[in-house]
Amino acid sequence: MDFDSRSLQRIPSGSEAGFNHHTHPQTTWRSRLTPRDRWAKAAIAWATVQLVVVIFLEAIIAKKNSDYHHALEDATQGTTDSVRTGLVANANALTIYHALFIVAQAFQWVLVGDAVLTASTIQMISTTVFNFALFGYSALQFKQASDIGDTSNDIRAANLPAPHPTKTLEIIVIFAMALFCIGWLVITQRLYRVFGWSVFKNLGADISVRRRLKLYHVYMMLLKLDVFFFFGFDIQYLVLVILAPAQSDASLKYTHGLVAMPLTLVLLVLAFVAIRRESRVLMTATLLGLSGAIGYLMAKLVDVAQLGSTSKYSGSRKSLTFFESLTLALCVATFVIACLNFRNFGKGLKEQLNKARGRDLELDNIADRPGAQKEAPRWSLE
Predict the structure, then answer these.
(1) Rounded distance, CA 287 to CA 264, Å?
(2) What pLDDT shows up at residue 355?
(3) Rg of the Cα atoms in the chain
(4) Computed from CA positions of residues 160, 66, 256, 318, in that sequence, does the dihedral angle turn out positive or negative?
(5) Which residue of 1, 186, 221, 237 lies most exposed, with the fewest beta carbons within 10 A?
(6) pLDDT of residue 248
(7) Cα distance between residue 48 and residue 187, in whole Å
């Protein structure tokens, strides 16, 4: 009997010898960022809308505040009282906050994209929490701008500009962030099921593996947050303290700018490589680096507490205390989770992740759910 090539492809075999099973091609990053699941698509779309809307509004606010601060400086030129000095310092600090808020919007978009890419429930939840923190920050931004306007009324100078020119726009940003946060609650709840099934499908039902995976995702999530908060603190401290006109200690520029900031980057890269390779040597170096970072942040926090009322921290004491406290808490949490992941080295999670990496995830191939129709496997002689 003659067989054509199409018939041969349908011949099953009890043994895989001589036969190759054609599987679906591996997914790409582009396909994962344009997933088939509607809630995964909604997450990318919602993050993009938030990015565009909030950055647009915040850029206008930053420009208006910059013009207001320049007009305020010109109107109070020649006065040397402490009220004027503190007012100008607070105005300069507010400019940095605008920049950080804009960067934070871009950062949340990256977090969402990476959460979809890795199907990480933990990162999706942390992104939602991060957005709620941005909502709170938008309210604090309004409060600080209002305080600057109130303080400017105490200065007796001619041609003072109208206080708080960005009040309306800042209120719009607050309500916009509240709306986006509500949307993130809904999207995260929906994606919780999608990502949960993806983990089950790719790593199985082994509880110990899932626990190790959870610690891995928590660690990776903390590293991503560390990037924002570590460099956010470094930049604030550099601009508001070290490069401030009142700063006379030139050695701080070299200590912080040329040592602390580059070491921050090295530490974060080292921490990432250590967990991906399960390198005990690199993880040990990471833990030592985190210990040094904790000590450095504690020293800076004590310095702010002791010298907060001096000209060194004029206009930056509250923001630095807030940012340093968050950064220190994240650093301690990263150290603890790093230790827990260190204990899991060599227990098979690395191999499981390498096998799962590149497969079709739930958000890419919904048809793989139990009970869904699947295509019959194709067999061919080669």
Answers:
(1) 13
(2) 64
(3) 27
(4) positive
(5) 1
(6) 54
(7) 14
The per-residue pLDDT for 58 is: 93
Task: Report the alpha-carbon distance of residue 194 to residue 190 in Å, rounded.
Answer: 7
Q: pLDDT at position 374, please?
A: 41
Q: Give the amino acid at 191.
A: L
Q: Element (H or E) spanning 280, and its range? A: helix 280-307
3-class SS string, 297-350: HHHHHHHHHHHCCCHHHCCCHHHHHHHHHHHHHHHHHHHHHHHHHHHCCCCCHH
What pLDDT does residue 179 have? Answer: 96
How high is the pLDDT of residue 333?
94
Q: How far is it, in rounded angstroms, from Cα 173 to Cα 134?
A: 10
Cβ 315 vs Cβ 90: under 8 Å: yes
Query: How is residue 228 written in tokens?
Result: 């924002």
For residue 28, give the 3-state DSSP assignment. coil
Residues 304-329: tens digit of each pLDDT: 888 766 766 766 777 788 788 889 99
8 A C-beta contact, residue 268 and residue 230: yes
Average pLDDT over residues 288-292: 93
Which residue matches tokens 């990053």?
29
Taking the alpha carbons of 343, 345, 346, 352 in that order, is the dihedral positive or negative? positive
The closest alpha carbon to 177, from 131, 122, 238, 108, belongs to 131
Higher pLDDT, 253 or 375: 253
**H/E stretch holding 274:** helix 261-277
The model's pTM is 0.74
The span from the CA of 157 to the CA of 66, in Å, is: 19
User: Alpha-carbon dihedral of residues 162, 165, 168, 173, nearest 10 degrees?
Assistant: -160
